[in-house]
Design goal:
This is Ras-related protein Rab-28-like. Keywords: GTP-binding, Nucleotide-binding. It comes from Aphis craccivora (Cowpea aphid). It is a single chain. By secondary structure, this protein is an alpha/beta fold. It contains nine helices and six strands; from the N terminus they run H-E-H-E-E-H-E-H-H-E-H-E-H-H-H. A six-stranded mixed sheet has the order 2-3-1-4-5-6, sandwiched between helices. The chain is globular and about 45 Å long.
């Protein structure tokens, strides 16, 4: 008996997505923000691999995503981690040029593994809220994505949540062979928030204003 399109939408599709990159690039924070809308400034290194489960819906399709969040040092277990992966996310930190230089190494390691079906690759540049500390030009990410034919290339911020849902939904759609509509894209697009540098400037202005007020209060005005 054939299954119609309506029944197909009811079937939960399953994906395995593996996250790779250097230590302290924010891989775990990106995953935590996506799965739990949560963020912590405390740096806790991942030991080996941690597993996350995310259920989402895209264009009526129910999707179960098994996320493998790997440490920056896979200790020779990389092939086992990425076995049968549907997608691989490469992460680097825009404030750390070394982490970007290592992306090609991670890519080459991942692509050298034998796959029955080659996974979809994505490139996430994290910490886009720290634009004032950027040390990796955006053009480098664009050129890298073109050279290695990486279909999903996004700048994200685990701290603010900027582009997190948008980037992940793009990747899930790519894995399922779906074309996102303009509505789908806008629904998951998080508008940029003020960067830390703006907060610092505002704090500085407030501090200077308070100092001026304190100074003026000690001046005796003679009329």
């Amino acid at each position: 008996m054939s299954v119609n399109s309506g029944d197909n939408l009811l079937i939960e599709k399953e994906l395995k997505i593996v996250v790779l990159g250097e230590p302290s690039t924010g891989k775990s924070c990106i995953v935590s923000r996506y799965c739990h809308d949560d963020y912590t400034r405390q740096y806790i290194p991942t030991c080996g691999v941690e597993f996350y489960l995310k259920r989402t819906q895209i264009q009526g399709h129910n999707v179960r995503i098994n996320i493998w969040d790997t440490s920056g040092s896979t200790n020779g277990l990389l092939k086992k981690y990425i076995y049968n992966a549907d997608a691989i996310i490469l992460v680097y930190d825009i404030t750390d040029c070394v982490s970007f230089s290592s992306v090609s190494t991670w890519y080459n390691k991942a692509i050298s593994v034998h796959y029955d079906n080659v996974p979809t690759f994505a490139l996430f540049s994290n910490k886009c809220d720290l634009e004032h500390k950027r040390s990796v030009a955006e053009e480098k990410q664009i050129l890298f994505s073109k050279e290695f034919k990486i279909p999903i290339s996004q700048s994200v911020s685990a701290r603010t949540g900027e582009n997190i849902m948008f980037a992940w939904q793009q990747l899930v759609a790519e894995c399922l062979g779906l074309k996102l509509s303009k509505f789908d894209l806008e629904q998951h697009l998080v508008r940029p928030v003020k960067a830390e540098i703006e907060t610092t400037v505002n704090q500085y202005k407030t501090m200077m204003s308070n100092q001026q007020q304190n100074t003026s209060s000690t001046i005796c005005v003679i009329q």
